[in-house]
C-alpha cells in the first residue's frame, strides 16, 4: 500500500456527521492497530474564503454558470488536499475526513451530481475507500440544528423545506452511488460501530492486517 485508507464523512447539515467521525476516530485509536488522522476539508482548502464568497453569490443569484464555478473551486481545493496533504500521510494510517465531494450531492441544486463527481475525478481528487453518508430524517436533523446555539449554520439552506430537499437529494445519491448509509437517529455509539464494522470489512484494511 502506498497511500492511507481514506474514509469520507458527508451528509446534510446537523445529521451528526462530525460527531460520528470523532467517535469512529476514538474507537479506531482504542483499537490501536493503525494510526488515525482526522481532517476537515474546509480547514485545509487554501482558497476556501474565495469559494465561500462564490457560494454566497450563488445563493443570492442561482445560475448554472455560478454553480459550475463553485464546483470548480471546490474540486480544485480537494485536488490540492489530495496532492499536498493526503500524499504526506503514512500509508499505514486510516484517514477520516469531514466532507468531500459526496457533499455536493446535498448542496448543489443545478448541475447533475454525476457531472460534479466527474469534474472532481478528472482533477485527480482522491476517491475514498469508503464513502460514509451520515443521515437522519430531515425533521430530526432540523430539530437538532434549532437546538444548538449556531443553528443550522448554512449559507445555502434557510428553511425546513430546503433542508428536506437537500436530504432527499443526498439519499438518492447514496443509493445511486452505493455509498455506505449511516443512520444517526439513535446513539452516536451505535452509528460509530456501524461505520467501524464497514471499515473493518474494506479490502484495503484487510490487506493492512496481513
TrEMBL record:
<keyword id="KW-0418">Kinase</keyword>
<protein>
    <submittedName>
        <fullName>Thymidylate kinase</fullName>
    </submittedName>
</protein>
<dbReference type="InterPro" id="IPR027417">
    <property type="entry name" value="P-loop_NTPase"/>
</dbReference>
<dbReference type="GO" id="GO:0016301">
    <property type="term" value="F:kinase activity"/>
</dbReference>
<keyword id="KW-0808">Transferase</keyword>
Amino acid at each position: 500500500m502506498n497511500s492511507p485508507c481514506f474514509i469520507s464523512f458527508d451528509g446534510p447539515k446537523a445529521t451528526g456527521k462530525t460527531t460520528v467521525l470523532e467517535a469512529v476516530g476514538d474507537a479506531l485509536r482504542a483499537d490501536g492497530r493503525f494510526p488515525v488522522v482526522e481532517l476537515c476539508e474546509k480547514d485545509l482548502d487554501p482558497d476556501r474564503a474565495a469559494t465561500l464568497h462564490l457560494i454566497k453569490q450563488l445563493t443570492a443569484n442561482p445560475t448554472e454558470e455560478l454553480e459550475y464555478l463553485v464546483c470548480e473551486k471546490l474540486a480544485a481545493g480537494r485536488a490540492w488536499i489530495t496532492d499536498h496533504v493526503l500524499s504526506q500521510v503514512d500509508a499505514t494510517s486510516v484517514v477520516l475526513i469531514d466532507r468531500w465531494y459526496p457533499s455536493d450531492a446535498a448542496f448543489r441544486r443545478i448541475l447533475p451530481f454525476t457531472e460534479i463527481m466527474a469534474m472532481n475525478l478528472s482533477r485527480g481528487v482522491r476517491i475514498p475507500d469508503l464513502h460514509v453518508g451520515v443521515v437522519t430524517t430531515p425533521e430530526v436533523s432540523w430539530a437538532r440544528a434549532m437546538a444548538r446555539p449556531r443553528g443550522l449554520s448554512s449559507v445555502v439552506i434557510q428553511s425546513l423545506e430546503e433542508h428536506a430537499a437537500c436530504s432527499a437529494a443526498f439519499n438518492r445519491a447514496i443509493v445511486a452511488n452505493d455509498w455506505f448509509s449511516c443512520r444517526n437517529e439513535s446513539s452516536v455509539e451505535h452509528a460509530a460501530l456501524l461505520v467501524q464494522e464497514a471499515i473493518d470489512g474494506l479490502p484495503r484494511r484487510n490487506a493492512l492486517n496481513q
